[in-house]
Amino acid sequence: MRHSLLNPTRRAFLAGTAAIGGSAMLGIRPASAAVNWKKHAGTTLEVNLVKSPRSETLIKYLGEFEELTGIKVNAEATPEQQQRQKVVIELSSGKPSFDVVHLSYHVQKRQFEKGKWLADISGFLKDPSLTDPSLTEKDFAEAGMLFAKDSDGVLRSLPFSVDYWIVYWNKELFEAKGLKYPETFEELVTAAEKITDPATNTYGFVARGLKNANTPVWTSLMLGYGAKPIVDGKINTESKEAVEAAKLYQRLMTKAAPPGVSGFNWAEAQSAFLQGKIGMWFDGVGFAPPIENPEKSRVVGKVGYGVMPKGPAAQAAGTFGDGLGVVEASSKKEAAYLFCQWAISHEMGARLLQAGAGVPFRQSILEDQKVREGVKMPATWLDAVVDSGKVSQLALPVIIPVTEFRDIYGVGLTNMIGGADPATELKKATEQFAPVLARSEG
């Protein structure tokens, strides 16, 4: 899908500005006058995006950016797997066809760093003629800055949208058992097991059991034990904490989850939760729209949205995310930076959030009362988003072979649902993964 707005008509522009006027009550702010937005008028930018509701939102409003800056934009949005392969081939060649690139931090961060594919934009961020004064490092959730900076602390991208993992919980099933939302892992297990009643096909907990997809469930639980799977390049998956997190995963998925859960990805887990027979579902924050849609869901108005309960060592919301970067090989870096800044602006972030298309990394957008009034999701969902941002931690290791990591440990986790011993499975997976990690950093 390519999109080009070379000559936006005056009528389209006026319609756009009228729309902005109407949006003022939803907290959408106009672009800062301090920035010299027209500095690169006449430039044409090539932008490479992943096809998603987030890129659709950007493409929908491209005409406004073109009118604001005089920069023409050709934006291409392709499906995720295809886009990842294409950008790696082009960036490796040293002659990419694009100036701006979308990256999935939790999969591509280390690979992009190692390839030195993204420009240093820290100077641009500090330049008042290029950057809106409201855009500061402090405005991003901590995980956003961890993602956006390289291992030397240099800013290489702007955090675009974040996915915190939260707990969706069925208030009706909780009330029936006299339970309140769990504050700790221990309370989570107790609630899950109390709600479970196979005779009525009711289960207390569901999450991903399918190999590869299930690995972030375990790594998110690990954060609550104060541990991460890889620390300073060394594998930490046989530690006491890693084993305890795996045992907790096994207990929830065998004692409180529906039959067949080892074949569940997010779609199957969502489908089960929407039927109204599941107490809690643990997954990414972006699944509220179908839950609140009466055509798809039997639980409209019955769902609570909760921050991940506290583990024995910490309360942590597993965090994933996407960013937009200026390509090092581009000869139009300042213009490309202006596009990235516009894409994550207060205005565009508000639109993203209000459409339920994504969650911006910028806390000021999430906490803006006017923006909140325009959000279609329940206020408790937004509260869970904001509070997760305060305890966000990266849930997957920042390594090149993330897919192999998820595959290898995912098999072990699926085996645990079948009754295998967690410590034994983690030992096997660690032995298998060690050479893969070593090769990737070689």
Number of helices, counting only DSSP H or I runs of 4 residues or more: 20
Gyration radius (Cα, Å) is 22 Å
Low-confidence stretches: 1-25
**Which percent range describes the beta-strand content?**
15-25%
**Major β-sheet, in short?**
10 strands, mixed
Class by alpha and beta content: alpha/beta
Helix content: 40-55%
Estimate the global geometry from the Cα principal axes. Answer: globular
State the separation between the terminal residues, measured CA to CA. 37 Å
Structure description:
It is a single chain. The two termini are 37 Å apart. It is built from 20 helices and twelve strands. Strand 7 and strand 8 form a beta hairpin. Strands 1, 2, 3, 4, 5, 6, 9, 10, 11 and 12 form a ten-stranded mixed β-sheet that branches. It has a two-stranded antiparallel sheet with strand order 7-8. The radius of gyration is 22 Å and the shape is globular. The chain is of the alpha/beta class. Helix 10 crosses helix 11.
Provide a quick synopsis of the model.
The chain is built from 20 helices and 12 strands. By secondary structure, it is α/β, with parallel strands linked by helices. The strands form 2 sheets. Strands 1, 2, 3, 4, 5, 6, 9, 10, 11 and 12 form a 10-stranded mixed β-sheet that branches. Strands 7-8 form a two-stranded antiparallel ribbon.
Topology:
Layout: E1 2-4, H1 10-23, E2 44-50, H2 53-60, H3 62-69, E3 72-78, H4 80-93, E4 100-104, H5 105-115, H6 122-125, H7 142-148, E5 158-170, H8 171-176, H9 185-195, E6 203-206, H10 215-224, E7 230-231, E8 234-235, H11 240-255, H12 266-274, E9 278-284, H13 288-291, E10 303-306, E11 317-326, H14 333-343, H15 346-354, H16 363-366, H17 369-373, H18 379-390, E12 392-394, H19 402-417, H20 422-441
Parallel strand pairs: 2-3, 2-4, 6-9, 11-12
Antiparallel strand pairs: 1-3, 4-11, 5-9, 5-10, 5-11, 7-8
